[in-house]
């Protein structure tokens, strides 16, 4: 039992270290922005299914109640109810039949045979819009992944800042020890001890700030993933991944969903032109209905009968409204084609810009790594010199400050390089593919 309790205590003292892929997968599933976008796509799907349903036969059930004393209606109503007698044809009865009521039940089947191509055009418009919205959703996923990537990189930087601050506190404590030792041996003044303690106090203050910033950075991740992870740590970046601009450019136009979506929207506008022309073409439809008539009872059947038919309807608007509507769709199509052409060029520029930023970040990372090693060596030398009275405490603290700064700059450069790498992939539409490998 003691061993189990010890293991539990140790387990609670170390938070789980979660990799980037966990947060990306959770964001793709739970992110509220994506959830909203999925609803938009679902609405487009239902809109398509709604329009597609217009191609199917329509069934109508009607129940109508009438009461009249108009002679012709009286006679026809009684005929439909199959209650006509010879007495109903006497002049006095025909001229003054009295009133009659009727319940008419009608079941109708309407079948669109050819509606000028409008219905199929409407269906194809809705279908292509749905496909475009689904493709745009893929781009929205990449946007969310980039946000998660940046938030994760910020959390890694905040975590490294905590480590830098802890090391700074540890080094400052060592400097206090050196100052006290040097003061006792008469090599240094008591002012050196005070300076070292002030530096230590400031280092502890920065450590608390770094720890708070780390907690905030982790909260930002939970906001994006819409999930509570409890106590956790992020996993450090081991390096800055490599990427080639030629590969980005060769794949971009086949992977950028916002570019691919325009193809579906253009197709939708082409179908819109067909739907507009459908308004000036003949429309053919068929129908069948079955009717029941009763004097006193709804849905009753004193009389009954059916009717079958085929209809032709041809409308022509003298204001040429369908023609102008077609032209409107055509202009929108041309505008979207120009937009697609511009986007293709903008994507190439975006890749060039993102890759330049990546190369700059990579160079900065290499420089920061060198500065960190050099600052570490400078501090080591000055510590040795201070121990033998050949350096001042001010020099020692200045060297420590430079090392702390170099350590943080390296951590920031590693963060910036990884973010630049993600943005380069994002510019080519390859971010999701790469990070979820």
Automatic annotation (TrEMBL):
Keyword Endoplasmic reticulum: no
Signal peptide positions (record): none
Keywords assigned: Cell outer membrane, Coiled coil, Membrane, Transmembrane, Transmembrane beta strand, Transport
CC terms in the record's Gene Ontology section: cell outer membrane; efflux pump complex
Primary localization class, coarse: membrane
GO molecular function, one term: porin activity
Coiled-coil region: 162-227, 351-385
Compartments where found: Cell outer membrane
Origin superkingdom: Bacteria
The keyword Transport is annotated on this UniProt entry: yes
Pfam hit, one: OEP
Family: Belongs to the outer membrane factor (OMF) (TC 1.B.17) family.
Designated name of the protein: Outer membrane efflux protein
